[in-house]
Automatic annotation (TrEMBL):
Pfam families: Asparaginase_2. Residues 1-23 form the signal peptide. SUPFAM superfamilies: N-terminal nucleophile aminohydrolases (Ntn hydrolases). GO terms for molecular function: beta-aspartyl-peptidase activity; N4-(beta-N-acetylglucosaminyl)-L-asparaginase activity. InterPro entries: Ntn_hydrolases_N, Peptidase_T2. This is beta-aspartyl-peptidase.
């Protein structure tokens, strides 16, 4: 009898090495850990992978990965030194979310502190709040030990801003203002919102909006999702926002459910693109809720993008979706999108390419 019990115990131990018990479910541990990120930010994904593969929590791995992107100044749109606003200043938006507790920490329009994702985690760890903004967010981050105050501009961002000023501050994000062909100050012009379509078409060009087109090189975000070895999920985002934005503008980066969202029971989502449009639809919340209702990641991603594109046909953006079993997919509108993945079955990070109105699915 003792020999039989020992054999049973050995079988149980062997089985526990292959499967992890999560709640009332048994999940194949070979799926985990896993890292998914917007864009070919390969070094950021490698950093997050090393952390989570070493046993870090999902939240800590997300912070490590996004921090790497901030330090590398990915595409000039993450971290310090990029995307100047109308005053030539770079500011930071960031968010981190724990899919176990549903806690969120975020900072927005943060000045003088370069470590956006670390500041967001400090908000989550040491306050009962979700979002801190502006100089008060900077003061909080510095008081909690992050370096600062620091000039977040760079030679490149300053040169970009000077050239923009020389071009009469065009294009910009103002509309229905006077003057529109100089650098302001701007004042409200006559309201044209009640004109007919025919009347609006007769408006002189100088009264029409000349909003800058969103693109990879002027408006971008790292959004990252991590599943750790225990199957717990976290997400994070970091961005320095839209180039030549109106000072004080906050995009979707620090908005839970817009730039990213996570729920251990379902999965995660990350987004990038025109944050001013995307935050009106909370696409990542939509993706996770669609998956909760049984929709596959590829269909959930496509559905979220189509909901936006139906209202804004010229919308530029993308989302990736990942369920709790590690199945991932993405969809986009207005541009070709790439996202990066690292899982146990891969020797290194793999970059997937998605075309408008199409999806890439891992399985």
């Amino acid at each position: 009898m003792a020999s039989k019990s020992l054999f049973s115990a050995q079988i149980l131990v062997h089985t526990s090495l292959l499967f992890l018990a999560l709640g009332h479910e048994i999940v194949n541990s070979e799926v985990y850990p896993m890292v998914v990120s917007t864009w070919p930010f390969v070094e950021a994904v490698r950093t997050a992978w090393r952390a989570v593969d070493s046993g870090f929590s999902a939240v800590d791995a997300v912070v490590e990965g996004c921090s790497a992107c901030e330090e590398l100044r990915c595409d000039g749109t993450v971290g310090p030194g990029g995307s100047p606003d109308e005053n030539g200043e770079t500011t930071i938006d960031a968010l981190v979310m724990d899919g176990v507790t549903m806690e969120v920490g975020a900072v927005a329009a943060m000045r003088y502190v370069k470590d956006g994702i670390k500041a967001a985690r400090l908000v989550m760890q040491h306050t009962g709040h979700t979002l801190l903004v502006g100089e008060k967010a900077s003061a909080f981050a510095i008081s909690m030990g992050l370096p600062g105050p620091t000039n977040l501009s760079s030679t490149e961002s300053t040169e970009k801003w000077i050239k923009w000023k020389q071009n009469h501050c065009q294009p910009n994000f103002w509309k229905n203002v006077q003057p529109v062909n100089s650098c302001g100050p701007y004042h409200g012009k006559k309201d044209y919102s009640h004109r007919t379509c025919f009347e609006a078409s007769l408006l002189p060009e100088k009264f029409k909006s000349s909003l800058p087109r969103v693109g990879v090189n002027n408006h971008d975000t790292i959004s990252m999702a991590v599943i750790n070895k225990l199957g717990h999920i976290a997400v994070g985002t970091s961005t320095n926002g839209a180039t030549f934005k109106i000072p004080g503008r906050v995009g979707d980066g620090p908005i839970p459910g817009s730039s990213s969202y996570a729920d251990d029971e379902v999965g995660a989502c990350g987004a990038t693109g025109d944050g001013d449009i995307m935050m009106r639809f909370l696409p990542c919340y939509q993706v996770v809720e669609s998956m909760r209702l049984g929709m596959e990641p590829k269909l959930a991603a496509k559905d979220a993008i189509r909901r936006i594109a139906r209202k804004f046909p010229d919308f530029v953006g993308a989302v990736f979706a990942m369920n709790k079993n590690g199945v991932h997919a993405a969809a986009c509108s207005g541009w070709t999108f790439q996202y990066s993945v690292r899982s146990p079955e891969m020797d290194d990070v793999k970059v997937f390419t998605v075309y408008p109105d199409s999806t890439i699915n891992s399985k």
